[in-house]
Amino acid sequence: MKTGSQLPGLLLMGIVILCSMGCRKLSERPEYAPDSQERINSWVLDSMQVYYYWNFSVPDYINFTRDPSDFFNILKNPSDRFSALVNPDMPQTYPPSLVHTLGFDLITFESSDGKGQTMITLVVPGSAAAARGLLRGDIIKTIDGVEPAAANITSLTETAIARQTVVLEIERRNGSITVGRLSVTETPVYTYKVFQSGGKTYGYLFLNSFEDPAVDQLMQAFSYFKQQQVQELVLDLRYNPGGSVPVAAALAAMIAPGAAEADTFVEYRGNVRAGTRKSSFAQELGRLPSGIKRSFSQFAAYRLGLSRVYILSGSHTASAAELTINALKPYLPVIQLGAKSLGKDMASFVIKDYRSPQLVPKWEIYPLVFKLYNSAGKGDYSGGLSPDQEADELSALPLKPFGDLTDPLLRRCLAVSGGAAVANIRAAPALQAPKLLFDSRNRVDTGTQNISVPGN
């Protein structure tokens, strides 16, 4: 199920679990009035006591007269950063992000003169922002006529999101440009390319999400890589917030040498009621939507004969993106470069009131229910997946286009893999990255794309 059209910052994909753990509530309470706070909170408590990964810490009873959002936050385990209670009619329950509203992200960092400087980090292809000529690395002089700084960048960004339009002055351009609301479906594969370096043929691919449209785009990219006889693959997941497990399985099937369709792709470990379940490549691929469903052998046909894979990561690499990194490790060496990932190592599903008539209309619970492990039983990366080689994209400014060989993450990758100009890369001065003061992408992290648990 996908709710992205309603909730820009909470795109949940996959197949909603059936009531395989039992839908019976744990306790009987008075019949509260439909849609009352007491009814909503009672339903939330019962659901969390059954499905929640940390259900052992959920109390038997709390004052049901609290605001539902406050009530839900009381129930959450201190370790839980991602479970959510959402009402589509109440935007405050799922604060929208800049990128999902206006089609670009930005950061503010401390410049050499001690002042804050604001820069574009990402522009959604096909968006109004892209059409107006915004580029990654652009320095923003003013936002709605105001010079951005550490003290005001949060309010300037929030105002732009609320208005769904913004006027920018860019350092390299004369005059101002107006950027309107994002009105296109984001393309998961932003770019891919093949280049020669150090006598090797490299394939580079920037994947910004594991949404369903990625399947055909990935097949197109890997077909090109195969035609070009790519020897080394660089998969850029630095901003990838996650998405669909079946899409992640499809990508892994195209990469992992020797993996068979009956092999385990992911293992789900839940609370005492949920237990443990293993899911094979074949099972996950079988859950792809009918329009993009392919067999394991069809995906495996795109394999490049890789002996390893290089994956670029950052603090915004999350959920299904982290799952992909971890799930590939039993099948081939994974060299992770960049920064530690976000640490979303859990799966969730949506809980709604499916009764007719509904007693708790519109409210939706997205509880974390399973920890994720690979086929070797390795997981527990809630603190993030640490890179094998550290690199900071802010160490070389302005930010370079994705796939540019001077990008610090890709430079480090070439140095590690023995690509051309290795001596020059290693001789380059190690510049200290500036202090980051604000990052609009953090809003995406708080509503990151949850992994939905498969049914039986």
- The best one-word shape is globular
Largest sheet: 6 strands, antiparallel
Strand order of the largest sheet: 6-5-4-3-2-18
User: What would the average pLDDT be, to the nearest integer?
Assistant: 89
CATH architecture of the domain at 189-346 and 370-428: Alpha-Beta Complex
**Terminal CA distance:** 15 Å
Number of extended strands: 19
Radius of gyration, whole Å: 23 Å
Low-confidence stretches: 1-24, 420-430
GO molecular function: endopeptidase activity; serine-type peptidase activity
Keywords: Hydrolase, Protease
Protein name: C-terminal processing protease CtpA/Prc, contains a PDZ domain
Domain PDZ: 102-157
Question: Your description of this structure?
Answer:
This protein has helices spanning 37-51, 68-75, 98-102, 128-131, 153-163, 214-227, 245-255, 281-285, 296-300, 320-328, 408-417, 422-427, 442-446; strands at residues 84-86, 104-110, 116-123, 139-143, 165-170, 176-180, 189-197, 200-207, 232-236, 264-269, 276-280, 309-313, 334-338, 346-348, 364-366, 368-373, 389-390, 436-439, 451-452. The two termini are 15 Å apart. Among the domains are: 104-180, Pdz3 Domain; 189-346 and 370-428, 2-enoyl-CoA Hydratase, Chain A, domain 1 (Alpha-Beta Complex). The chain is an alpha/beta fold and 456 residues long. Helix content is 24%, strand content 21%. α7 (245-255) packs parallel to α10. The strands form four sheets. It has a six-stranded antiparallel β-sheet with strand order 6-5-4-3-2-18. It has a six-stranded mixed β-sheet with strand order 7-8-9-12-13-17, sandwiched between helices. The model is unreliable at 1-24 and 420-430 (pLDDT under 50). The protein is built from 13 helices and 19 strands. α6 (214-227) links the parallel β8 and β9. Pfam families: Pept_S41_N (PF18294), Peptidase_S41 (PF03572). One of its GO terms (molecular function) is endopeptidase activity. Residues 102-157 form the PDZ domain.
